[in-house]
Amino acid sequence: MKANMSLGYIGWALIGMAGYSLTTLFMKLAMRAGAASSFTVLIVAVSIVFASTILMVTMRGEWGALSSQLGGRAMLWSCATGIVLAIAVILLFRALSFGPASVVVPIYGMFIVGGAILGLVFLHEPLTWRKAAGIAAAVLGVYLIAG
Questions:
Q1: Are 79 and 71 a contacting pair, CB within 8 Å?
Q2: 1 pLDDT band (50/70/90 cuts)?
Q3: Which of 87, 137, 125 is nearest to 108 (CA)?
Q4: How far apart are CA 100 and CA 146, in angstroms?
Q5: Closest CA to 138 of 102, 104, 101, 110
Q6: Which residues fall within 8 angstroms of residue 131, CB to CB, at 6 or more apart?
Q7: Are 96 and 104 in contact (CB under 8 A)?
Q8: Where are the beta strands (DSSP E) in 1-147?
Q9: What is the pTM of this model?
Q10: Distance CA 14, CA 17 (A)
Q11: Does residue 6 have a pLDDT over 80?
Q12: Integer CA distances (angstroms), 17 to 1, 58, 73, 146, in order
């Protein structure tokens, strides 16, 4: 029987969050273990992500769909995403090479608040009292953790 891989967006987000949490831990451990710089760890990590992505696209048989999307506005936004994500991850790894994970990660985690605010402003998502309270609580939480 084939396993159902439909976890829903919350399930996938939780798995992604766990992975990102482990990324920070493993990066700090790699730097402590020897002469690896944050950029060495990043090159290895990006190479593995790239190879894994190629493998997944191949296994799912999505090369045709991928090649049909290599143009237009979607590709432009995809390139912008890649550039900004690369800068964000490089700067995260750089910050982790200088500071403690218990301070750097919560500050970096404010991208959640930034993403929520950008969604409100540019994607015209509705602002509810619950969202506003969540944003305020997140900011307060980061202040308390990293302060």
A1: no
A2: very low
A3: 87
A4: 10
A5: 110
A6: 116, 120
A7: yes
A8: none
A9: 0.72
A10: 5
A11: no
A12: 29, 25, 29, 19
Which pLDDT value is given to residue 119?
Answer: 93
Q: What are phi and psi of 5, to 5 degrees?
A: -95, 10
Kindly state the tokens that stand for 94.
Answer: 């750089």
DSSP conformational letter for 69: T
Residues 139, 106: Cα–Cα separation, whole Å: 10
Q: What is the rounded CA–CA span in Å between residue 41 and residue 8?
A: 31
Among candidate residues 93, 112, 2, 11, the one with its CA nearest the CA of residue 46:
93
d(CA 43, CA 30): 13
CB 96 within 8 A of CB 28: yes
pLDDT in tens, 45-72: 888 988 998 898 888 888 877 777 777 7
Structural tokens at position 21 = 């949490």
